Amino acid sequence: MKKPLVLPMDVRLMQWTSLTLFVLAFLLCMASAIGWLFRHPAFSIQGITVKGNVTHSNVVTLRANVLPQLSGNFFTLNLLQARQAFEQIPWIRSAFVRREFPNRLSVTLDEFSPVAQWSVEGDGKFLSAEGTVFEVNADEVETESLPLLKGPESQAKTVLEMYQFLKPLLAKMDMRIDKLELSQRGSWSVHLESGSTLELGHGSQQEVGERLQIFFKTLTQVSSRYGRTATSLLSADLRYENGYALRLRGVSTVVPESLKKL
């Protein structure tokens, strides 16, 4: 039996060197090809497909505002940055972005839905159904049916929740909210469509609701004492510990503790 031929060390080194150089050359060629592919104009982002709840934005506007902010092509585009670019556009609440081979983006958008004006009437700030403050052109919103809510912006969701709590409660007394405000000190006040004002004081929904129930229970009786009805209400201050102050047209009085128990 013949022994296997053992190549000299220098020959084996030459073979390993040749193989290593061949692999390196191959890898360089592959890297060059991939780099060329990534830089090829055919893969530059050239279009956007828009889906979702979109009524205030169109493809032309989106393309004009977003495409200049995007860097990279189909392969190298940062989708997080692309999503943030879409969400900076007025009306856009959220965006989901994905690639469409070879040179397009598909974006699913969700717009804000305004449920109230925020802070100052007519300045373009609105409150969404989620309690988020957003800013758009006021002319694009039908504001006549929207209440005005005001307070510290960090408390916007709390203000919206209080409005949603008070609206049906006041509606039972045929009172409709025109403006609800939370002061910097945490005190609530309501301006009604009738022009009346209710000072509700501090507290949670439950605490404010209890004060209103006492007020509603005695309002008709107190008004009738002075030959008035509840529609004569000008203002009520519910911040008193043992009652409330009431202003009727031509009359001003304070409800004593005894009436709270009626």
Summary tags:
262 residues; alpha/beta; Ubiquitin-like (UB roll); Rossmann fold; 2 domains; 10-stranded mixed β-sheet; 3-stranded mixed β-sheet; 13 strands; elongated
Kindly describe this structure.
With 262 residues, the chain is an alpha/beta fold. The protein has two domains: 45-111, Ubiquitin-like (UB roll) (Roll), CATH 3.10.20.310; 143-260, Rossmann fold (3-Layer(aba) Sandwich), CATH 3.40.50. Helix content is 34%, strand content 26%. It has six helices and 13 strands. It has helices at 9-39, 59-66, 79-87, 156-171, 205-225, 257-260; strands spanning 47-53, 92-100, 104-111, 114-118, 125-128, 133-135, 148-150, 177-182, 188-192, 197-201, 233-237, 245-248, 251-254. 21% of the residues are buried.
The dominant shape is elongated
Structurally, how many domains make up the residues?
2
Biggest sheet statistics? 10 strands, mixed
Rg (CA only): 34 Å
Structural class: alpha/beta
Output the helix-strand order: HEHHEEEEEEHEEEHEEEH
> Low-confidence spans: pLDDT under 50, at least 5 residues?
none
Q: Give me the count of strands.
A: 13
Mean pLDDT value: 86
CATH class of the largest domain reads Alpha Beta
Secondary structure tally, helices: 6
CATH topology title of the largest domain: Rossmann fold
Name the CATH homologous superfamily of the largest domain: Cell division protein FtsQ/DivIB
The N- and C-terminal alpha carbons lie at a distance of: 119 Å
Please state how the strands of the largest beta sheet are arranged side by side.
6-5-4-7-8-9-10-11-12-13
Seen as an oligomer or otherwise, the chain set is single chain
CATH architecture of the largest domain: 3-Layer(aba) Sandwich
